[in-house]
Design brief:
The chain contains 3 helices and 7 strands. By secondary structure, it is of the alpha+beta class. It is globular and about 55 Å long. The site of zinc ion (ZN) has 5 residues, from helix 2.
């Protein structure tokens, strides 16, 4: 297992559409382990393969709270099948857009078809944080980011701010 570098905006990779996995083998199992390790290391609750530069339709999630047991969930080739009319709003952050939180309205409930680690087709119906997180991560597989919902002006401002942070050298006090 290894911790991967997470790609941050601005990045063309993050805008690309990920490819479905046809054969699930050792490489994909390793990828999922790496995604979990990277996600836990970065204290995120979800991570898609594209965020570490791998354009495959795979994502991992763990929405358990700090004092609960870990609950790692992985989704291969996830597809949203149904969504509710009711919506919910969360202030969402993204490991690829550091220090930025945006209020996003999404369907409250979603039904998602996916393939599990054993290659079995499964269906999950979820609400609350898991529903929002799953929709956020599936957006990543389609090259969509939470800043895409903002006006161009606001989006450019955020990207500029993050680019500046990226360029700055490490600050030290001696
Ligand atoms: Zn994200």
């Amino acid at each position: 297992m290894s911790i991967k570098d997470i790609i941050t905006v601005p990045s063309d990779t993050l805008k690309k559409i990920s490819e479905p996995i046809v054969n699930f083998g050792d490489n994909e199992k390793k990828l999922i382990k790496d995604l979990f390790e990277t996600m836990y290391h970065s204290k995120g609750i979800g991570l898609a393969a594209v965020q570490v530069g791998i354009l495959k339709r795979v994502l991992v999630i763990d929405v358990s709270s700090k004092d609960e047991k870990k609950n790692p969930m992985s989704f291969i080739n996830p597809v949203i099948k149904n969504v509710s009319k009711q919506t919910s709003i969360y202030e969402e952050g993204c490991l690829s857009i550091p220090d930025t939180f945006i209020e996003i309205e999404r369907p409250e409930i979603c039904e998602v078809e996916y393939v599990d680690l054993n290659g079995k087709k499964k269906m999950i119906k979820c609400d609350g944080l898991l529903s929002t997180c799953l929709q956020h991560e599936i957006n990543h597989l389609d090259g969509k980011l939470i800043i895409d919902n903002l006006s161009k002006l606001k989006r450019d401002f955020i990207i500029k701010k993050i680019s500046k942070i990226k360029k700055n050298p490490d600050r030290i006090i001696v």
